[in-house]
Amino acid sequence: MYNLWQIGLRYLSYRWKARGGKGHGIHSPFVFDLVMQVLNDDRIFYAYESIEQQRALLLNSTENLEVVDWGAGGTEKKVTTRSVQQVAGRSLKPPKYARLLFRLVQYYQCKRVLELGTCLGITTSYLAAASSEVKVTTLEGAPAYARKAREVWENLGWKNIQIVEGNFDATLSGVLAKAATWDMVFIDGNHRLEPTLRYFEQILPHTHAGTLFVFDDIHWSREMEEAWQKIQQHPSVTLTIDLFFVGLVFIRPEQMAKEHFIIPF
């Protein structure tokens, strides 16, 4: 991964290039509506407070977890001990971006959402809270994280989440075989070039016109930036939006020409 200095320089470059944060200069009606109705929506929705209360509990928990780490390529199994507050402080998506996921599910009326990388279940909670009709399937490689996530969902009362434990390389194909097409896919798992591209290719046949992919940490490392560039160039991809910490990828066959936006968020 890049160090903080490198990430800072890349963020400054992103802010320099970013345009259209208020909708100005965006000629695509599809993207203009997304900016005005989703990215710029600062309303406080009903579920935010209860989910953030759960985040606060995790950030203050001194409980230790034995975590299975599958390594860079997903094959090297290693067990480490980490505190819940350490994991929460380093790995949970900040409220700004977790709430963006919530609004995306609402705006596009997603009913089937797939998440790769549950962690402690906070982003999953935002996805599940967005609609009474949404069903979230989330994959997590660390049983200890999955257990804590279940506690979070039980506290919140969510009944529309299914979690699948195990290495993504072993579990993803089975999940895809049993499900219909996905409306939204959030990929926040193995932050490496080859697995990211492989998961994307593996999921693509199970999407439809209008499926939204959200990739986490697209500028986290040189490999993730390369993965983002390759995804932008993929023949199935017609529209991407770079929000620096996350990237939005749309499958819109009706759009003839590719468009790539860098928008301040």
What does this 3D model show about the protein?
The protein is of the alpha/beta class and 265 residues long. The protein is 43% helix and 22% strand. The protein has ten helices and ten strands. It has helices at residues 4-17, 29-39, 48-59, 84-91, 95-107, 122-129, 143-156, 168-178, 193-203, 222-233; strands at residues 64-69, 78-83, 112-116, 135-140, 161-165, 182-187, 207-216, 239-242, 246-250, 259-262. The chain has an eight-stranded mixed sheet, sandwiched between helices. Strand 4 (135-140), helix 7 and strand 5 (161-165) form a beta-alpha-beta unit. The longest helix is centred in the N-terminal third of the chain and has 14 residues, at 4-17. The protein is globular, with a radius of gyration of 18 Å. The two termini are 22 Å apart. The mean pLDDT is 93.
Shape: globular
Widest beta sheet: strand line-up: 5-4-3-6-7-9-8-10
The total beta strand count reads: 10
**Assembly state (oligomeric):** single chain
Give the overall average pLDDT. 93
Number of helical elements? 10
| Termini Cα gap | 22 Å
Radius of gyration: 18 Å
Low-confidence stretches: none
Order of helices and strands: HHHEEHHEHEHEHEHEHEEE
β-strand percent reads 15-25%
Structure classification:
alpha/beta
Helix content: 40-55%
Largest sheet: 8 strands, mixed
